Amino acid sequence: MEKATKRIVDISLAWTGPLFVLGYILFWAVLGHNVPPPNMMAMTPDQLVSEYYGKYQNDIAIGMVGCCVVGLLYLPWSMLLASMLREEDGSLGVLSLMEAAGGLLTAWLLAFCPAIWAACALLATSIPAYMIKAMHVFTWVIYDCTFMITTIQLAGLGLYTILNRKQKIFPAWTGWCAIAVGIIFLPLVLMPFVSEGPFTVAGSWNFYIVFGTWLFAFFTPYSYYMLKETLGYNARAKQAFAPALG
Q1: 29: exposed, middle or buried (Cβ count in 10 Å: 0-12, 13-18, 19+)
Q2: Where exactly are the transmembrane stretches of this chain (predicted)?
Q3: Domain membership of residue 13 as a residue range
Q4: How far apart are CA 50 and CA 54, in angstroms?
Q5: Is residue 243 part of a domain?
Q6: Is the C-alpha dihedral spanning 24, 207, 139, 50 positive or negative?
Q7: Total structural domains in the chain?
Q8: Which among 130, 199, 204, 230 is placed 20 to 30 Å from 189, CA to CA?
């Protein structure tokens, strides 16, 4: 591929990340009425249907189907990020592959789980409430308790950024932030077992801190440096590695 064409492709893929975030905020948070999501473990099946799925049925259905589309924009963004994590010989090492695999599986979850929530909304008035709650809880357990998928992505990315001192695309502090965000996800495993407090699905830790740090401590800085690199503002003239020190 010609350099000019590759640059256009890379710039386009770099923008899929911000488009994913904006789209997910619109479809999942706003139309999905998930700011915060309903505290399902403290609600009866009838309450979940009457106060959430029944009340916002059309909004949720449209929003979750929208997530099925925009959620997968996380995939090309993650693949572009992995392509920037190259070894000196140009190959992708194990840390780069951890980032790529984690990004791929995270993208799948970001689309797959909303598809089930969309089904809950569409069926809210035609099947028993206990079935709606079972599907809803089942999906949230998948969405939150498989956090290790994304933690592995962040660990691979963070370790590469910190340990590969010859790469000049991402500052070392972004790597530490990525690892910290992956660790912050750990209390998500408590979500199915509590009905009140910071570790509920809508709690201060498991919702606001987890999503907030992911957005501002990981995604935003890495997106910034990816765009800076692909747009050609890097002082290294787009070379991935600095010359080896003699």
Answers
A1: middle
A2: 12-31, 60-82, 103-131, 137-163, 170-193, 205-227
A3: 3-230
A4: 5
A5: no
A6: negative
A7: 1
A8: 130
* Residue carrying the six token digits 């399902």: 40
DSSP secondary structure letter of residue 186: G
Could you say which DSSP state residue 167 is in?
B
Q: Is residue 122 a part of any domain in this protein?
A: yes
Point out which residues pair with 241 in neighbouring strands.
167
Q: How far apart are CA 206 and CA 41, in angstroms?
A: 14
Q: Please report, for residues 37, 186, 201, 203, 214, the alpha-carbon distance to residue 144 in angstroms, rounded to integers and kept in the order given.
A: 13, 10, 9, 13, 13
| The two three-digit tokens of residue 59, written as one number | 């909004």
Burial of 172 (0-12, 13-18, 19+ CB in 10 A): middle
Q: In the numeric block, which tokens belong to residue 144? A: 């939150």
Q: Residue 238: inside a domain, yes or no? A: no
**Is 54 in contact with 124 (CB distance < 8 Å)?**
yes
What's the rounded Cα separation, in Å, for the pair 66 and 64? 5
Residue type for position 63? G
**What residue type is 195 in one-letter code?**
S
Q: Is 103 inside a domain boundary?
A: yes
Is residue 209 packed enough to be buried (19+ CB in 10 Å), middle (13-18) or exposed (0-12)? middle
Task: Please report, in angstroms and rounded to a whole number, the separation of the first and last CA atoms in the chain.
Answer: 33
CA pair distance 122, 201, nearest whole angstrom: 22
